[in-house]
Amino acid sequence: MSAATELMNFAIIVAFVTLGFGQILSMVRLALGPTSGDRILALDTMVINALGLVVMLGIYQGAQIYFEVSLMIAMLGFVSTVALARFMLRGDIIE
User: Fold this and answer.
1) How far apart are CA 86 and CA 65, in angstroms?
2) Cα 28 from chain centroid?
3) Residue 48 CB neighbour total at 10 angstroms
4) Which among 24, 34, 48, 89 is most buried, taking Cβ atoms within 10 Å?
5) What is the pLDDT of residue 93?
6) Predicted TM-score (pTM) of this structure
7) Are 88 and 36 in contact (CB under 8 A)?
8) Average pLDDT estimate for 76-87
9) Which helix (DSSP H) or strand (DSSP E) does residue 19 occupy?
10) What is the pLDDT, as a whole number, of residue 75?
11) Residue 43's pLDDT is what?
């Protein structure tokens, strides 16, 4: 193995650990959040961390399907965050 390959593997491992730790901290905020705004923000952060984990898995395995999955996760996460925020503010989603 070359030094560049070893450095890339180390960087991927560090990224996986960092994103996993961020996901755990977001779960803690989701459980302990004193307000509903904190919980919505924690859910949005969990979606972003999951998106990062899927992208890192795609880089690690070299498969392109993970990048398409990450686009779907991003769209679903955005729509669900907006819908949940509207529900918390107005009490309904569709006017």
Assistant:
1) 32
2) 15
3) 18
4) 48
5) 67
6) 0.85
7) yes
8) 90
9) helix 3-32
10) 95
11) 93
Separation between Cα atoms, residue 76 and residue 87, nearest integer Å:
16
Q: Where are the domains of the chain?
A: 3-90
Res 95: pLDDT: 67
Burial status of residue 50 (CB atoms within 10 A of its CB: 0-12, 13-18, 19 or more): middle
Instruction: Give residue-wise pLDDT tens across range 5-41.
Output: 999 999 999 999 999 999 999 999 999 989 988 999 9
The span from the CA of 72 to the CA of 47, in Å, is: 11
d(CA 74, CA 51): 7
Structure tokens at 73: 């996760």
The dotted CATH code for 3-90 is 1.10.287
Looking at this protein, which amino acid is placed at residue 88? M
Q: Return the H-helix or E-strand segment holding 40.
A: helix 36-61
Nearest one of 13, 17, 80, 81 to 49, comparing CA atoms: 17
The rounded percent of the chain whose pLDDT value lies above 90 is 77
